[in-house]
Fold this sequence. Notes:
This protein is α/β, with parallel strands linked by helices. α3 (about 130-135) crosses α5.
Amino acid sequence: MTEVMPFHLSRGNKLNSSATITRMRVLGIDCGTECTGYGIVEQSAEAELRCVAAGAIRLSPREPLPRRLDRVFTQLSRLIADHQPELAAIEDVFYAVNAKSALKLGQVRGVAMLAASASGLEVCEYAPLAIKSAVVGYGRAEKLQVQHMVQRLLRLPEIPEPADAADALAIAICHLHTAATQQRQFAVQARR
């Protein structure tokens, strides 16, 4: 069952920039073997951030893995069709102690990347430290700090639930901040 928590806000967060910002809609995906979070964030031409949708695809560990993978693929494909993001951002592989868990997580990541790619989206990957740095300003920030900053940056009335949805929104925000920084750098280089 997919939980969809759309937010339609009139206000957003403005990035300070002298460069022109391009309107962009990004799907952030936080993969998990039992809960895969998603968050769709839109940045306006005025650099305002707005949460379009957030939620999670909950998976039962009692279901066979192929069925769980199919549900992730199907539900992400449906979200992409419904909300039309320009690209997808996903957390990069991180070190895991348990090899079996890491393999299952890798399979979920692969299916999520396939759903985005099959829908014609570019997929960008970000390390956990980069995501935390982009959202909080500190790569070793605690999970709760990231969630509070997501709430603040998107001007949400409360922290998005479940935590996987907040993490997915953070991944999308990371991409938007990274893209805005790159646009400013290109603008400066073009003036030289």
